[in-house]
Every structure is written in C-alpha cells, then in structure tokens.
Design goal:
The longest helix has 22 residues. A hairpin with a 6-residue loop joins strand 2 and strand 3. The chain has 315 residues and is α+β, with helices and mostly antiparallel strands.
Length: 315
C-alpha cells in the first residue's frame, strides 16, 4: 500500500485481527538519503493528509432458499425495483455506487459506495435496506473509510522549511503554512481524492495495518524514514501503471483496520502479481499486516438478476 506515491493506484479483522489513481507500491532500499533529516521533538509525527470521498463497502450473501421459495412474480418485482435503485445510485455525478458479484464464500454481492459525507453514505445504505430484495440479502461484513492521500514528501519538505525558520508547531504562522500547503496539494490532487469508480471488470479489496509489534513498530520510526520507505514503496507500483487502478482509503477511527485498498483491473491475475511482488519490499515485508481479501466482478444494475439466479452468474 502507498499513501504518497506519484502514480497510484489496503472487512472486519479476521477473528478481530488475525493474521489513487494508478498503483504505488515500493522497491527495496532505492534512493536512500545520505542522512536522515532531524526535526525538533515537538514537530508532529503524522504526515499531512488529503481526504476526499467517504467510502462504504457492503458485502452480502443471498438467502437463496428463501429467495427460491418466493413467488416468481414477486421475485421479478423485487429485482426490477433493485435494478432501478442501483441504476439511479450509479448515475450520480458526485459520488456513485457500483455492484460486483462476489467470488467465494465471503459474499455473493459487493456494493461499493463513494459519497461526499458519512450522512450521504447513510442515505445510500438506507436506500438499499428499503428494497424488498434486502429481505433476502444477509450482510456478511462492511468497511467504512475515507479516500486518503498521505503527503509524506510535502510534509518533510515543509517541516524542514519551518524548522529552518524556527517556526514552532501550532503557532499561527505554522497553521498558515500548513493550510497553504494543503490548499495547494488539494488543487493539484482533487481528481484523485474525488474519483469516479473505475470502469474495470474486476475488483480486489482488502484492509491492512502498519505493524506495532515490538521492534517492528511503524509508528516509532522517524518521519523521514517513513517518507523514504513510502517513496520506495511507490516504485514497485509504477511497474503496473496502466494495468491496475488503486484507491487508498483511511479508516483509522472508522473501522477495525487502518487503511482499505481497492484495486481495479481488467485482468484479475495482476492482483496476484502485484501483491506478491509488493511483499518483498522493505515497508511491506517489515511493517505491513494484511486483512481478508474480497474479489468481485462488475455487474450492471440491469444484470442484477444473474447474481440472484440459480443457474449462473455474470457473463
């Protein structure tokens, strides 16, 4: 996972913690600076971040026995109502909804929502819950987050400037400098924090953490060391530019893991190749913890009946 690469592109914890927008993952030990930048102890340890769309993943299992027992006319009515609703949610210009047919036992249907706020996410969730079809959809998990770009490079550069000027953290001059930097970055990166859901056939979603285990504690590393690791991390993903679109979302304080990663591609094998290669990079090998993976195939609202049929899925 990367939160600060130039090219961009991590459900609940398994047993409660077992174990933008093209890609960015890392290459090991590349471009190590000759010496680490030192900052006063009271400088903030966290990088600046940009936040965009609020994101909700919903995973459902179809209660097929009850669904098959329903009268055929009522099944058709429920499917048509759901298709109309999902079509309307998918045509929104400012945050949309997409459907995926889930692979494996973790769920039959993945619903992905992008919205401007948690309130709008709640409206989308309630719209789905109000469908007749919802009586036959059993939630298996969900994930709440906010699209995030971590500004490690910009943060370290700004901290260096402020340290040289002897500007103290959280002083009025400090706050002005931070606000100006965020405004500048937001102007440049607006399309990446408020993206359309990529029109690619396959989705891979997984949550992840940075380790806090003894000596392997990401949060005890100096910010410049984390900046280096995240810079190197981005070099791996650039090898997959054009093949995968990645969207990173932050979930600290919102869900059980720290980040969520959505990968979108037209060939699912690229998920395996990318994640496998990523595991050898320094930041991932030393500090990453991966949650469960969810894979789905994009489904148009008009094809929703295929997920619900007893004799086939999306073609």
């Amino acid at each position: 996972m990367t939160r600060d690469s130039v090219a961009r592109p991590r459900g609940p914890r398994e047993s409660r913690h077992k174990s933008q927008n093209t890609l960015g993952f890392m290459a090991m030990n590349a471009h190590r600076p000759p010496e680490e930048q030192k900052f006063p102890a009271d400088f903030p340890a966290a990088p600046l971040t940009l936040e965009g769309f609020s994101v909700l993943h919903q995973m459902f299992r179809v209660r097929r026995q009850a669904w098959r027992a329903l009268d055929g006319a009522r099944r058709l009515e429920a499917v048509e109502e759901a298709a109309r609703t999902f079509a309307a949610l998918g045509r929104r210009e400012d945050g949309e909804t997409a459907l995926y047919s889930g692979l494996g036992h973790k769920g039959d249907l993945i619903v992905l929502h992008f919205r401007r706020s948690f309130d709008e996410l709640n409206e989308a969730q309630l719209a789905l819950a109000g469908l007749a079809l919802s009586d036959f959809l059993e939630p298996t998990t969900s994930y709440l987050s906010v699209i995030e770009i971590g500004l490690y490079e910009a943060t370290v550069a700004l901290h260096k400037q402020l340290a040289e000027k002897q500007v103290r953290p959280r002083s009025p001059e400090w706050q002005r400098a931070i606000e100006e930097e965020l405004a500048s970055q937001r102007s440049k990166l607006n399309a990446r924090i408020y993206p359309k859901i990529p029109e690619r056939r396959y989705l891979c979603f997984y949550p992840m953490d940075k380790k806090r285990e003894g000596a392997d504690n990401w949060y005890r590393l100096p910010i410049d060391e984390r900046r280096r690791l995240m810079h190197d991390h981005g070099l791996v993903g650039r090898r997959f530019a054009g093949e995968v679109t990645q969207i990173i979302s932050g979930s600290i304080g919102f869900d059980d893991w720290e980040w969520g990663v959505d990968l979108f591609a037209d060939d699912p094998l690229v998920f395996k190749k990318l994640v496998y290669e990523m595991r050898f990079d320094e930041a991932s090998a030393g500090y990453a913890k991966f949650g469960p993976f969810y894979v789905g195939i994009r489904v148009a609202p008009d094809d929703l009946a295929k997920i619900l049929a007893t004799n086939g899925g999306p073609r």
